[in-house]
Design goal:
Strand order of the largest sheet: 2-1-3-9-8
Helix content: 55-70%
Strand content: under 5%
Largest sheet: 5 strands, mixed
Distance between the termini: 69 Å
Number of strands: 9
Mean pLDDT: 89
Shape: globular
Number of helices: 26
Radius of gyration: 25 Å
């Protein structure tokens, strides 16, 4: 295949279409280019699969990188400011390091500030590239994050002994909610790169001592980048050797382990634990405190084990709880089918000797997949855990290891369907089944199933209530910046639940913020300020809390959770004087 073939060149246009389409959407609310870009991806994948000529090896990694960048930037480029929840405090930690010209764990004393991926790393890029600070997070981190699929592709290709199947396995990760929205929590995005690279190294043919040295380097980089990613990584490294050891001593006969040639050992586990403990418990501190809080709250919540309020709605949806309409059902159905197939793949490797021989996976890989299934099950079973850390983000990280089992599980099912003497060609059916599920997953994670059902569900290419929380207007940041310059630094700023995101962008030093003002939880003292943003002024709405449930579709419109009319709370604004008003933000005293 020539390098000038359209199949080779088209992926290069996807990032261009994403950036141009986001500009058109921001300036003119025109989503045609973004929709064309999204719809062209499954069409391209079908074309690539049906291509009869031998595909050039560069096509798969090139396509993965371009699709990865396009999906990440699609969800970071709306508005001129940052999109998401976590990212605002992440950006503030970075901004403090820039202003102070050094990293200070006490400024702010927050768990995010222990992640060097948010402080020192973006500061280096800022000074090297000489670009506006906000572009480092909105754009350049997407360039980095698009690297994640590449080491995973190498790992999956080595496991599955096929470039095309490795490509499909990697697409499974990229078509997850957590990956395409990972630009909104960049500490995990950077840790993800090191985690995927570490897993890739495990299948590398390099010398064992060199492999272990590189692996330890990536372990350290993951710990310095994101705490939860490091904890999950530690579990994947520490628990499989224990399972293999336990099975040997308990003489489990259902799985025939080979006890030789193990990469992980107690020394590596102890080193990994020491790095985590030194960094999070000794050098920094807030993260260790937060981790203990999650453990304590999980044990406390055992008294209300069956309470749905102690579980994230994403984990409830896996069990079919809270499904409101057909697009919601389709998304849950597709993802549950994928979960089930992955489980079949893990069981096939565990109990079928012919599959273990064909894919030449070692005991540690099989043990790690069993550990991963147990971790994922705990997020559904245990109360509070999924509230503290979303299961979607956990699943995406663990898919780096687990995704080949999706291909193996599909193969196992088709092999057994063949025994029923159903007339089909195995390889064609394998590709057709995998591609169908991948494309359906892509449609669901990008909310195209909602869009074509007439429900404006995506804030990237739709307008309406889905943008109420995340979309930030210039006027909102301008109002916060004015208050930063002329306001009293010791006064409390009262706002609605997500107004603090706008305030942080306008301030150099985190002010005193009460984002529960409309819940009437605290006093309003003389000299305090009330900050009203675009939604409060122009739509007459406020957020009492962040949305804890997915939006619902009522009488042709989207209704966000925890939104109420501001008219119900006008008594809180009574006798207050306006001292600033630019049409998109208003400050009262």
């Amino acid at each position: 295949m020539s390098m000038l073939n359209p199949i080779v060149l088209y992926p290069l246009f996807l990032p261009v279409l994403t950036v141009l389409g986001s500009y058109m959407m921001n300036m003119y609310s025109n989503n045609l280019i973004l929709l064309f870009m999204l719809l062209s991806i499954p069409v391209y994948l079908l074309t690539l699969t049906l291509e009869k000529k031998k595909v050039h090896p560069i096509v798969y990694p090139l396509t993965l990188y371009c699709i990865g960048f396009s999906l990440l930037s699609l969800n970071t480029l709306p508005s001129n400011y940052l999109i998401g929840r976590d990212i605002h405090m992440e950006y503030y930690c970075f901004k403090r390091s820039l202003i102070d010209h050094h990293w200070d764990i006490h400024d702010p004393y927050h768990g995010y500030n222990s992640c060097l991926s948010l402080t020192i790393l973006p500061a280096i890029y800022k000074y090297l590239l000489d670009v506006p600070s906000i572009l480092v997070f909105k754009f350049y981190y997407c360039i980095l994050g698009a690297i994640v699929p590449l080491p995973m592709y190498v790992f999956a290709r080595r496991i599955l002994k096929s470039r095309k199947l490795g490509f499909y396995a990697t697409l499974l990760l990229m078509f997850q909610f957590a990956y395409i929205y990972m630009g909104q929590y960049v500490r995990q995005l950077i840790a993800f790169i090191f985690f995927a690279a570490a897993i890739m190294i495990l299948t590398s043919p390099i010398k064992g001592s060199h492999k272990k040295a590189i692996f330890i380097t990536f372990i350290t980089a993951t710990v310095l980048s994101h705490y939860t990613s490091a904890y999950v990584f530690f579990a994947v490294v520490a628990l499989p050797p224990f399972i293999i050891w336990a099975s040997k001593h308990l003489k489990w006969k259902s799985i025939q382990w080979d006890y030789s040639k193990r990469f992980s050992n107690k020394n590596l586990v102890l080193l990994f634990f020491s790095i985590i403990f030194l960094w999070y418990a000794q050098v920094t501190g807030p993260t260790f405190r937060d981790t203990l809080h999650v453990i304590i709250e999980t044990f406390k919540s055992m008294a209300n084990f069956f309470s749905l309020d102690l579980r994230n709605y994403s984990e409830q949806a896996v069990l079919g709880i809270g499904l409101a309409h057909f697009p919601n059902f389709l998304s849950t159905f597709v993802h549950d089918i994928i979960f089930a197939i992955i489980g079949v793949g893990v069981l096939a490797l565990s109990f079928k000797e012919e599959y273990r021989r064909e894919y030449q996976v070692n005991d540690e890989y099989i043990a790690s997949t069993l550990v991963i299934l147990a971790i994922l099950a705990s997020f559904v079973i245990l109360p509070y855990v999924s509230k503290a850390y979303g299961g979607r983000r956990l699943f995406s990280q663990l898919l780096v290891i687990l995704a080949p089992c999706f291909i193996i599980g599909t193969r196992f099912i088709i092999d057994h369907a063949k025994k029923l003497k159903i007339p089909f060609k195995r390889e064609k059916m394998l590709k057709a089944t995998i591609l169908t599920l991948l494309i359906l997953g892509f449609i669901c994670t990008n909310y195209l199933n909602y869009h074509f059902a007439g429900i404006p569900y995506s804030y990237a290419y739709d307008t309406g209530e889905r943008r109420y929380e995340t979309f930030i207007y210039d006027s909102e940041v301008t109002g916060a910046a004015w208050l930063n310059l002329y306001g009293n630094k010791t006064s409390m700023i009262h706002t609605d639940r997500v107004g603090d995101h706008r305030i942080l962008l306008g301030f150099n030093k985190e002010p005193r913020i009460d984002h529960w003002f409309f819940n009437n939880t605290g006093p309003f003292n003389q000299g305090d300020y009330i900050y009203l943003r675009h939604l409060n002024i122009n739509e007459g709405l406020i957020f009492k809390d962040t949305p804890l449930k997915p939006p619902i579709f009522v009488n042709g419109t989207i209704k966000m959770h925890n939104i109420e009319p501001i008219t119900k709370y006008l008594w809180l604004l009574k006798d207050k004087s306006v001292i600033y008003d630019n049409g998109g933000s208003k400050i009262l005293i």
